[in-house]
Amino acid sequence: MIGPEVDPVQQTNRNIHHHEEQAEAHNNYNRRDPLEILEHVKVDDSLQCPKSTIKKAFTDSSDNELSISKEELKKIEKQLRLVFVEFYQKLLHLKDYSFMNLSAFSKIMKTYEKRTSRAASTVYMKVVDNSYLGSSDEVNFLLEKVESTFIRNFTRSNHKKGRKLLRQKAKTEKQSITFITGFFSGCFVALLVATIFRITSQQFIKKKGTSYMENIFPLYSLFGYITLHMLVYAANTYYWKRYRVNYPFLFGVRAGTELDYREIFLLTSGHAVVALLCFLINLQIEMNSRSQQYKTVTEIVPLILVVLVLLITFCPLNIIYRSSRFFFIRCLFRCICAPVFKVRLADFFLADQLTSQVQAFKSVELYICYYGLGEDSRRQKKCQTHGIYNIQYFIVGIIPYWFRLAQCMRQFYEEGDINRAFNSLNYLSTITAMVFRTAFELKKGRSWKVLALVTSALAVLQNTYWDIVKDWGLLQRLSKNPYLRDKLILPHRSIYFIAMVVDIALRISWMQLVFEMNWSPLRKVTMITVTSCLEIVRRGIWNFFRLENEHLNNVGNYRAFKSVPHPFSYYDEEKDKNE
């Protein structure tokens, strides 16, 4: 039995009548006077940039007149282009959806005929073909109309360029990337082994190498933090792709421009090779007595390396993944300007990454002091004796947490979600802990130590709870998977419990620097570096489960497309009055 029989003729007549009603309504809508429509249109100036935020605060929101300047016209044209492209992509998805469903019907009926030996496929497929799903040409009509309108208005009737912009192709993998990455990885391993042998050699120790390392190591550790974070992010993208977490959509990256794990690993290995090579050159010149004349030149090698990284990052030429670099710069700029800009997922995700790079921020401050004082071999020691440096040391440590605090305040203002306010309290407690920890580090004393321990413990408890319960959505006692959540992507539930334990352990390791121990200066620098690296690893674990939870929430709420802001809004006064 397959259910009650359906009369194909009656079904077809109903579908035809329904299509005629829709066509008539569509024609009536299109026959309206354009000037009448224009009266109800205004420029949509939502709170997405500093100018609109300030303007909204000091102007009357009831003023809906259509007033457009040249700058606004360019912005509107850009937004309309994005709207057309996104709408075209949605129509293509609908077309694919229709085709897959028709194919599914056909396969189901063939399987049914094969197992029951009944010839029912012809009758039922005729009903399916005559249904709205099988007979409607509306999607194809809209595709043609959108394509012709886009080509005519945005590409000056250039059909090839217009179709290329609308029909965005998937990225193709290049074998050269794999080859170059392997080459850089081999070079990195060789340089790392050579550096370790050079540092541990007796000749280096006899020449007071430990004193030199105390000064030069904090400078090069900046590149180590960046390299490790890029490596962790490459692993994140690999597992997101493997378990089908749609990270380009979540970040709002333009299709076809996102970096996959191989490209990120290529950049990571190249960056590591250059940084390690410069470090090895510095060590070699320090050990070789015949090359002491070049010592003043090698002192600026770390600074040259920083300048090189900045030049590549901000290079306007279309080289080294320009679209990804500019996307990163835009997100970073919105983080710095928080809470003025509207907060997107990519913005607060980047700000969270920066909270795990506090030591890198302090290294940047050390660069400013190191090359600003004009001293020689013991510049770092001199830095810590300056009052201005110590004041900046307080401020630099809390900058990343301020970014997130300001973003949470902005989100609470826009959404009214109380969770945003509670999250801002987490970052406020972390800022307090960082202030007391820095005070204890610089001034010592029992009272500073107690304050640092208490505030750090409170911050660790709050942030650990927020990581696991809010950001990851775990520890739900009544879920289908006890103490996890209803939907999971990873096949083994034990991985989630292991991740929670590791997150707690690495959060607690953040506190160990508060305890005063009789460490040598070099050992203290090493412990700070190791702790900072563990925090970066913890952030990588957090990244995967945070985006996994966001992806599952999107799927559960049927959010599969970007919400592109439209430049115009339409207001129907009569409809508003009736409502």
From TrEMBL:
Keyword match Membrane: yes
GO molecular function, one term: inositol hexakisphosphate binding
Keyword Zinc-finger in annotation: no
Domain SPX per the UniProt entry, residue ranges: 1-126
Organism: Vigna radiata var. radiata (Mung bean)
A single GO cellular-component term on record: trans-Golgi network
InterPro entries the record matches: EXS_C (IPR004342), SPX_dom (IPR004331)
A Pfam family annotated for this UniProt entry: SPX
Protein name: Phosphate transporter PHO1 homolog 10-like isoform X10
Highest classification ranks of the organism: Eukaryota, Viridiplantae, Streptophyta, Embryophyta, Tracheophyta
Residues passing through the membrane, by range: 177-199, 219-240, 264-285, 300-321, 387-404, 424-440, 447-466, 495-515
Boundaries of every EXS domain copy: 384-578
Keywords from the named record: Membrane, Transmembrane, Transmembrane helix
Membrane disposition: Multi-pass membrane protein
The family this protein is said to belong to: Belongs to the SYG1 (TC 2.A.94) family.
